[in-house]
Protein backbone atom coordinates (compact mmCIF):
# COMPACT_ATOMS: atom_id res chain seq x y z
CA UNK A 1 0.00 0.00 0.00
CA UNK A 2 2.77 2.35 0.90
CA UNK A 3 4.54 1.68 -2.43
CA UNK A 4 1.31 2.47 -4.32
CA UNK A 5 0.99 5.79 -2.49
CA UNK A 6 4.60 6.60 -3.34
CA UNK A 7 3.97 5.83 -7.01
CA UNK A 8 0.92 8.11 -7.15
CA UNK A 9 2.93 10.82 -5.40
CA UNK A 10 5.65 10.53 -8.01
CA UNK A 11 3.13 10.85 -10.86
CA UNK A 12 1.55 13.90 -9.24
CA UNK A 13 4.90 15.63 -8.85
CA UNK A 14 5.88 14.82 -12.41
CA UNK A 15 2.73 16.19 -14.01
CA UNK A 16 2.13 19.17 -11.77
CA UNK A 17 3.65 22.54 -12.65
CA UNK A 18 6.46 23.18 -13.39
CA UNK A 19 6.61 19.65 -14.84
CA UNK A 20 3.81 20.37 -17.31
CA UNK A 21 5.37 23.69 -18.24
CA UNK A 22 8.72 22.04 -19.01
CA UNK A 23 6.99 19.41 -21.16
CA UNK A 24 5.21 22.20 -23.02
CA UNK A 25 8.50 24.03 -23.61
CA UNK A 26 10.03 20.84 -24.92
CA UNK A 27 7.06 20.19 -27.21
CA UNK A 28 7.19 23.68 -28.72
CA UNK A 29 10.93 23.41 -29.33
CA UNK A 30 10.46 20.01 -30.96
CA UNK A 31 7.78 21.35 -33.30
CA UNK A 32 10.01 24.27 -34.29
CA UNK A 33 12.93 21.93 -34.95
CA UNK A 34 10.66 19.64 -36.99
CA UNK A 35 9.57 22.49 -39.26
CA UNK A 36 13.15 23.64 -39.83
CA UNK A 37 14.34 20.08 -40.42
CA UNK A 38 11.57 19.51 -42.97
CA UNK A 39 12.55 22.75 -44.71
CA UNK A 40 16.19 21.71 -45.07
CA UNK A 41 15.15 18.18 -46.03
CA UNK A 42 12.86 19.48 -48.76
CA UNK A 43 15.79 21.26 -50.40
CA UNK A 44 17.64 17.93 -50.54
CA UNK A 45 14.56 16.06 -51.67
CA UNK A 46 13.87 18.64 -54.39
CA UNK A 47 17.32 18.03 -55.88
CA UNK A 48 16.89 14.25 -55.81
CA UNK A 49 19.27 13.49 -52.93
CA UNK A 50 19.00 10.34 -50.83
CA UNK A 51 18.23 11.98 -47.47
CA UNK A 52 14.90 13.81 -47.73
CA UNK A 53 12.29 15.50 -45.58
CA UNK A 54 11.53 12.55 -43.30
CA UNK A 55 15.19 11.90 -42.49
CA UNK A 56 16.06 15.53 -41.79
CA UNK A 57 12.83 16.18 -39.86
CA UNK A 58 13.24 13.25 -37.46
CA UNK A 59 16.94 13.84 -36.82
CA UNK A 60 16.45 17.56 -36.19
CA UNK A 61 13.47 16.98 -33.90
CA UNK A 62 15.12 14.21 -31.87
CA UNK A 63 18.33 16.23 -31.52
CA UNK A 64 16.32 19.16 -30.20
CA UNK A 65 14.52 16.95 -27.68
CA UNK A 66 17.77 15.54 -26.29
CA UNK A 67 19.33 19.00 -26.08
CA UNK A 68 16.41 20.67 -24.30
CA UNK A 69 15.91 17.90 -21.75
CA UNK A 70 19.55 18.24 -20.67
CA UNK A 71 18.84 21.87 -19.73
CA UNK A 72 16.32 20.82 -17.05
CA UNK A 73 17.91 17.93 -15.13
CA UNK A 74 16.31 19.21 -11.92
CA UNK A 75 12.89 18.15 -13.25
CA UNK A 76 13.84 14.62 -14.30
CA UNK A 77 11.74 11.93 -12.66
CA UNK A 78 9.80 14.54 -10.74
CA UNK A 79 12.93 15.85 -8.97
CA UNK A 80 13.81 12.36 -7.78
CA UNK A 81 17.17 12.07 -9.58
CA UNK A 82 19.64 10.48 -7.13
CA UNK A 83 22.41 12.75 -5.88
CA UNK A 84 25.83 12.22 -7.45
CA UNK A 85 24.40 10.58 -10.57
CA UNK A 86 25.04 12.12 -14.00
CA UNK A 87 22.43 10.68 -16.41
CA UNK A 88 23.78 12.80 -19.27
CA UNK A 89 26.66 10.33 -19.62
CA UNK A 90 24.17 7.51 -19.98
CA UNK A 91 22.25 9.50 -22.60
CA UNK A 92 25.46 10.18 -24.50
CA UNK A 93 26.30 6.48 -24.57
CA UNK A 94 22.81 5.52 -25.72
CA UNK A 95 22.71 8.02 -28.57
CA UNK A 96 26.20 7.05 -29.75
CA UNK A 97 25.44 3.34 -29.63
CA UNK A 98 22.16 3.69 -31.49
CA UNK A 99 23.97 5.78 -34.11
CA UNK A 100 26.23 2.82 -34.91
CA UNK A 101 23.18 0.56 -35.07
CA UNK A 102 21.48 2.89 -37.54
CA UNK A 103 24.61 3.05 -39.70
CA UNK A 104 24.35 -0.69 -40.20
CA UNK A 105 20.94 -0.23 -41.84
CA UNK A 106 22.18 2.14 -44.54
CA UNK A 107 22.83 0.31 -47.79
CA UNK A 108 24.59 1.71 -50.87
CA UNK A 109 24.07 0.05 -54.23
CA UNK A 110 26.06 1.95 -56.84
CA UNK A 111 24.71 5.51 -56.66
CA UNK A 112 21.45 4.54 -54.97
CA UNK A 113 21.24 4.71 -51.17
CA UNK A 114 18.55 3.08 -49.02
CA UNK A 115 17.84 2.82 -45.32
CA UNK A 116 18.48 6.43 -44.33
CA UNK A 117 14.96 7.07 -43.09
CA UNK A 118 14.89 3.78 -41.19
CA UNK A 119 18.20 4.65 -39.52
CA UNK A 120 16.86 8.09 -38.58
CA UNK A 121 13.70 6.55 -37.11
CA UNK A 122 15.75 4.19 -34.93
CA UNK A 123 17.84 7.12 -33.70
CA UNK A 124 14.63 9.05 -32.96
CA UNK A 125 13.28 6.05 -31.04
CA UNK A 126 16.32 6.22 -28.76
CA UNK A 127 15.40 9.83 -28.00
CA UNK A 128 11.86 8.68 -27.18
CA UNK A 129 13.25 6.12 -24.76
CA UNK A 130 15.43 8.74 -23.08
CA UNK A 131 12.45 11.10 -22.69
CA UNK A 132 10.40 8.37 -21.04
CA UNK A 133 13.34 7.42 -18.85
CA UNK A 134 13.73 10.92 -17.43
CA UNK A 135 9.98 11.41 -16.97
CA UNK A 136 9.12 13.76 -19.87
CA UNK A 137 6.15 11.63 -20.87
CA UNK A 138 4.18 14.23 -22.80
CA UNK A 139 7.13 15.08 -25.04
CA UNK A 140 7.87 11.37 -25.54
CA UNK A 141 4.29 10.68 -26.67
CA UNK A 142 4.35 13.60 -29.11
CA UNK A 143 7.73 12.61 -30.54
CA UNK A 144 6.42 9.06 -31.05
CA UNK A 145 3.29 10.28 -32.86
CA UNK A 146 5.16 12.71 -35.10
CA UNK A 147 7.84 10.15 -35.98
CA UNK A 148 5.23 7.54 -36.86
CA UNK A 149 3.31 10.12 -38.89
CA UNK A 150 6.41 11.06 -40.86
CA UNK A 151 7.14 7.43 -41.60
CA UNK A 152 3.59 6.78 -42.83
CA UNK A 153 2.70 9.99 -44.63
CA UNK A 154 5.98 11.85 -45.15
CA UNK A 155 6.65 10.14 -48.48
CA UNK A 156 3.19 11.15 -49.75
CA UNK A 157 3.88 14.76 -48.77
CA UNK A 158 7.20 14.71 -50.59
CA UNK A 159 5.60 13.26 -53.73
CA UNK A 160 3.05 16.10 -53.85
CA UNK A 161 5.70 18.82 -53.63
CA UNK A 162 7.68 20.02 -56.67
CA UNK A 163 10.92 18.09 -57.04
CA UNK A 164 13.69 17.14 -59.45
CA UNK A 165 13.90 13.32 -59.41
CA UNK A 166 17.26 11.71 -60.07
CA UNK A 167 17.99 8.44 -61.88
CA UNK A 168 21.17 6.41 -61.38
CA UNK A 169 22.24 4.85 -64.68
CA UNK A 170 24.87 2.20 -65.40
CA UNK A 171 25.88 1.49 -69.03
CA UNK A 172 28.07 -1.46 -70.05
CA UNK A 173 29.44 -1.44 -73.58
CA UNK A 174 30.39 -4.30 -75.87
CA UNK A 175 33.93 -5.71 -75.58
CA UNK A 176 36.33 -3.69 -77.67
CA UNK A 177 33.95 -0.74 -77.97
CA UNK A 178 36.03 2.14 -76.56
CA UNK A 179 34.51 5.27 -78.15
CA UNK A 180 30.99 5.81 -76.78
CA UNK A 181 29.21 8.96 -77.93
CA UNK A 182 28.92 11.03 -74.76
CA UNK A 183 27.40 13.96 -76.67
CA UNK A 184 24.64 11.66 -78.00
CA UNK A 185 23.98 10.39 -74.49
CA UNK A 186 23.64 13.91 -73.12
CA UNK A 187 21.33 14.81 -76.00
CA UNK A 188 19.06 11.82 -75.24
CA UNK A 189 18.92 12.81 -71.57
CA UNK A 190 18.14 16.43 -72.45
CA UNK A 191 15.36 15.49 -74.87
CA UNK A 192 13.76 13.39 -72.14
CA UNK A 193 13.86 16.21 -69.60
CA UNK A 194 17.06 15.22 -67.78
CA UNK A 195 20.57 16.55 -67.47
CA UNK A 196 23.62 14.53 -66.41
CA UNK A 197 24.67 15.80 -62.98
CA UNK A 198 28.10 17.35 -62.87
CA UNK A 199 30.64 15.31 -60.94
CA UNK A 200 28.54 12.13 -61.08
CA UNK A 201 30.28 10.62 -64.11
CA UNK A 202 32.53 7.63 -63.38
CA UNK A 203 34.23 5.38 -65.93
CA UNK A 204 35.60 1.87 -65.32
CA UNK A 205 37.17 -0.77 -67.57
CA UNK A 206 36.98 -4.47 -66.68
CA UNK A 207 37.72 -7.58 -68.79
CA UNK A 208 37.71 -5.62 -72.02
CA UNK A 209 34.38 -3.89 -71.33
CA UNK A 210 33.87 -0.22 -70.67
CA UNK A 211 31.30 0.82 -68.03
CA UNK A 212 29.80 4.26 -67.39
CA UNK A 213 28.01 5.30 -64.21
CA UNK A 214 26.24 8.64 -63.79
CA UNK A 215 23.18 10.36 -62.36
CA UNK A 216 20.58 12.06 -64.53
CA UNK A 217 18.60 14.81 -62.78
CA UNK A 218 15.28 16.14 -64.07
CA UNK A 219 15.50 19.63 -65.54
CA UNK A 220 13.63 22.22 -63.52
CA UNK A 221 10.41 23.38 -65.16
CA UNK A 222 10.29 20.49 -67.65
CA UNK A 223 8.27 17.30 -67.56
CA UNK A 224 10.69 14.41 -67.28
CA UNK A 225 10.18 11.09 -69.00
CA UNK A 226 9.54 7.82 -67.19
CA UNK A 227 12.33 5.31 -66.67
CA UNK A 228 10.71 3.00 -69.25
CA UNK A 229 10.90 5.75 -71.87
CA UNK A 230 14.56 6.37 -71.11
CA UNK A 231 15.19 2.63 -71.40
CA UNK A 232 13.83 2.58 -74.94
CA UNK A 233 16.35 5.23 -75.95
CA UNK A 234 19.30 3.51 -74.26
CA UNK A 235 18.64 0.26 -76.10
CA UNK A 236 19.31 2.14 -79.34
CA UNK A 237 22.56 3.71 -78.13
CA UNK A 238 25.50 2.36 -80.12
CA UNK A 239 27.66 -0.18 -78.34
CA UNK A 240 25.44 -0.68 -75.27
CA UNK A 241 25.01 -4.36 -74.35
CA UNK A 242 23.70 -3.94 -70.81
CA UNK A 243 22.29 -1.13 -68.71
CA UNK A 244 20.72 -0.61 -65.29
CA UNK A 245 18.48 2.24 -64.13
CA UNK A 246 17.07 3.05 -60.70
CA UNK A 247 15.85 6.06 -58.78
CA UNK A 248 18.81 7.54 -56.91
CA UNK A 249 16.76 7.94 -53.75
CA UNK A 250 16.22 6.13 -50.45
- How many runs of DSSP E, i.e. beta strands? 7
Amount of helix: 40-55%
Helix count? Answer: 8
Broad structural category: alpha+beta
Radius of gyration: 25 Å
Question: Averaged pLDDT, please?
Answer: 75
Flag low-confidence runs. none
**Total number of distinct structural domains:** 2
Order of helices and strands: HHHHEEHHEHEEEHE
Question: End-to-end span in angstroms?
Answer: 53 Å
Major sheet summary line: 5 strands, antiparallel
Strand content: 15-25%
Task: Give a quick rundown of the structure.
The chain contains 8 helices and 7 strands; from the N terminus they run ααααββααβαβββαβ. Strand 5 (202-206) and strand 6 form a beta hairpin. The protein has helices at 2-15, 19-46, 53-69, 87-103, 116-134, 137-160, 182-191, 227-234; strands at 107-109, 112-114, 166-173, 194-196, 202-206, 209-218, 240-247.
Amino acid sequence: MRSAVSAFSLVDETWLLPGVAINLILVLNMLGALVLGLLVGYERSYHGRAAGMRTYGMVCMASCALTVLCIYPQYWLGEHTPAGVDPTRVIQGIVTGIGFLGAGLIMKDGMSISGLTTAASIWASSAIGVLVGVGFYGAAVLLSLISAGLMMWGAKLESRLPSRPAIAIVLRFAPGFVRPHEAKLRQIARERGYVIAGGSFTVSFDQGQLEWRFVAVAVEGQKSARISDMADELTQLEGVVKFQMAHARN
